Automatic annotation (TrEMBL):
This is F-box/WD repeat-containing protein 15-like. Pathway: Protein modification; protein ubiquitination. Pfam families: F-box-like. The gene is LOC110302442. Residues 1-45 form the F-box domain. Keywords: Ubl conjugation pathway. CDD domains: F-box_FBXW12. It comes from Mus caroli.
Length: 425
């Protein structure tokens, strides 16, 4: 027989729970979900840290360099790696609110930064196309290498073979370097132009390369064919018949499924299409097949989607200026969250959270429901720092125990703002 406790005693009990336990309690039933999602409970768990670092480079790069996740073992700190206007990179411990490491001043301006949080490693590329690998403990770089042409895109991942760095240049070449010595594993011309984006699948079986132009189709490569060149006569790849690709998102926990979004400035129609990828043997060759399994058109009404993401149940979430929209991958609308007169500036999507950043710097945090396709609004983190009229929010990132925002303060320097979760030991 179920026992129903009154709301007030339950709220008192929930007030002693940490964030992980609150998320678990919210899955018990509808009543517990409503109580465990209370802003009162969640505000107790977060503290806002403001004006963390000033004087970023013009494009303001910042990436997590620590592992992610609220787990039963807990994660006791979040560390962010940043590029400063003094042409250095540094790491900052959010929970302790201190700078933990600073690199020497670099001879050439740093243009790209990526990190490999699992190994506490950062990778930079400067305007002279020099790649450097940092362990963010030692003063000097662990390794250095060079590209033949300017670098346009950069990614660091761990594959089943080795941890690697992928770099795309302006001539459409994809370079793959081994970590930690930056030994060149392969260099392949993959597109007839520069590579805008590199998207790796969850287990790094596939890598999708894209260019936001109508005549350049996204291209998917079988990662092993790029890493084990002696086993393959040529890289194994396929083109996806999807023009004007703006963004791509791999389905979490589904290694072979990816959703693409395109937008036409002429027709004002946004298109989503989901593909399943698989390897097939054709004679003595291995080929890749990309099969379209779902898709839909979103006609232009008053707003156009700017960003999107996908849940592990194939729910598509996208944001316009004033709305957060949820669809199935075939276009059936599931939920709508209205934001007018506020404006949505950024959307951050991961397997656990959906985070909306508004024009005043405040954030709404949603969680994916375990037993449905829907989103549950958890809490709002209100920005207490006044933002000037010309402020711009460039990026929002989350690692489950902290949330960071990268902003430019009017016409002044970039700064970092963070919310840190007070974790019970």
């Amino acid at each position: 027989m179920e026992v129903h406790l009154p709301s007030l005693p339950l709220m008192e009990i929930f007030s002693y729970l940490d964030a992980y336990s609150l998320l678990q309690a919210a899955q018990v039933n509808k009543n517990w979900n409503e109580l465990a999602s209370s802003d009162v409970l969640w505000r107790r768990g977060w503290r806002q840290i403001q004006d963390l670092l000033f004087a970023f480079k013009p494009y303001g790069y910042a990436c997590y360099i620590s592992g992610r996740g609220i787990t039963r073992k807990r994660q006791d700190k979040s560390v962010v790696c940043m590029v400063s206007s003094k042409n250095t990179i540094s790491t900052w411990d959010i929970h302790k609110s201190i700078i933990t490491w600073v690199s020497p001043v670099q001879p050439a301006s740093i243009k790209l930064l990526t990190t490999l949080p699992e190994m506490h490693i950062a990778v930079t590329v400067d305007i002279q196309s020099t790649i450097k690998l940092w362990d963010c403990h030692n003063r000097e770089a662990l390794a250095t290498s060079n590209l033949e042409s300017p670098c346009k895109s950069l990614k660091a991942v761990i594959t089943k073979d080795d941890p690697i760095v992928l770099a795309g240049d302006t001539l459409g070449n994809l370079y793959i370097f081994r970590i930690p010595d930056l030994h060149l594993i392969s260099a392949v011309n993959v597109l007839p132009c520069d590579i805008d984006e590199i998207y790796c699948s969850p287990q790094k079986k596939w890598v999708l390369l894209s260019k936001k132009q109508s005549y350049i189709l996204p291209k998917v490569f079988y990662m092993s064919s790029l890493l084990r060149r002696s086993e393959f006569s040529a890289p194994v790849s396929t083109l996806l018949e999807f023009s004007l690709c703006q963004e791509a998102f791999w389905t979490p926990r589904r290694e072979d499924r990816i959703t693409l979004m395109s937008r036409s400035d002429i027709s004002k129609i946004t298109k989503f299409k989901t593909y399943d990828l698989k390897l097939e043997e054709f004679g003595n060759k291995i080929i890749v097949k990309g099969n379209s399994i779902a898709g839909f058109l979103l006609p232009y009404y008053k707003e156009t989607p700017n960003w999107f993401g996908v849940s592990d149940k194939d729910t598509i979430v996208c944001s316009t200026e004033f709305s957060l929209l949820l669809f199935t991958n075939n276009g059936h609308r599931l939920q709508t969250f209205q934001y007018f007169p506020e404006m949505i500036m950024r959307l951050c999507v991961d397997p656990v959270h959906v985070i909306i950043t508004c024009n005043d710097g405040s954030m709404d945090v949603y969680a994916w429901e375990e037993r449905s396709l829907l989103l549950r609004k958890c809490y709002r983190l209100q920005n207490r720092r006044h933002l000037p009229p010309y402020s711009f929010i460039n990026k929002t990132l989350c690692d489950d125990v902290s949330i960071i925002q990268l902003m430019i303060d009017g016409h002044g320097p970039w700064f970092l703002m963070a919310y840190a979760l007070n974790i019970c030991s």
